[in-house]
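Deliverable D4.2, example record:
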Amino acid sequence: MPFELPDLPYAHDALAGNGMSKETLEYHHDIHHKAYVDNGNKAIVGTEWEGKSLEEIIKGTYDKNAVAQSGIFNNISQLWNHNQFWEMMSPGKSEMPSEVEAALNDSFGSVDDFKKEFAAAGAGQFGSGWAWLVKDTDGGLKVTKTENGVNPVCFGQTALLGCDVWEHSYYIDFRNKRPAYLDNFVDSLVNWENVASRM
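Output generated by the structure prediction step:
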């Protein structure tokens, strides 16, 4: 079965009060995410990856020795990234569960220090990419950043939180102010219950 574009878990205008407009979601989900789905499906037809899971394709096509990845990897990884991204945001005020707060305090010193490190990773990613909070292979938490569509699946890590820093994610609402977008993301958009469910 070909991969499908998942519905947003909320209305297109549900995040507007938190800093992500209806127009951004219409472009980002309905056009950009859909393009990754459509192009990814086309790219795997007739290949060994047809019928495999997103994670299997990502792990199998990622080339750790190359910056430029294949068309299959780029589209399938971005499909996966966006599937996670929508779930990682909440239209309502999301309270941070105590286990998340404790884990962030243990790993980063404080929640505020985590937020600063996460936002700095995203702001410091040259060009397109993502900022991540991951559970590493040793079970510890750390902040990472990846170029283009590369994601924690490539490294055997568990993605707890991810923020898209491609321009299509923030330019309508924040223009070229990526740091402001990232600060707003960690302060107003994160679904902390979703983060807890991934731990």
